[in-house]
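Task card 7
Instruction: Convert sequence to structure tokens.
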Amino acid sequence: MDKIEFAEMSEVQLWILNNLAIGHMWRGEYRESASILLRLCRYGQKSAGDVRLSWSVRAALCHNMAVCLLEMEKPKEALYFCDQAIAILQKEGGLSSVLYVLRLQMEAYRMLQDMDAYYRAQTLLHHLNCHLVKEKGSRAQIEKRLWDRRTLFVIF
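Output:
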């Protein structure tokens, strides 16, 4: 990874590194995963105005970093990346993606024992989920996907 010039990174290299970080997470190697994802997130922030890196990829990287930080039991840091992902998604769209980030926020608030914020996030998640059900299909399918642990991170 150290040999890759981030300024010249192709989309394929970005995908490979994201998936490598996810592999580290699955094996419980959170520091390695966080190191890769943090570098990718920084690259995403620097190239925010660049057309080469889409808004959905930048949001996915922030989301995956938040997942990794929650697994490392660092909820305050995870909230920062949740906020980054939500800011990107609010600007560009992506209601269903916001649901996943809200779920991460809920977990971070629960870990911090901030129950007021936890219930606010839970209520917003519920309202958005109900809206999505009206728009896209059965509640059972959406609930199953939303709470399936394997969908915590984003493989793009």
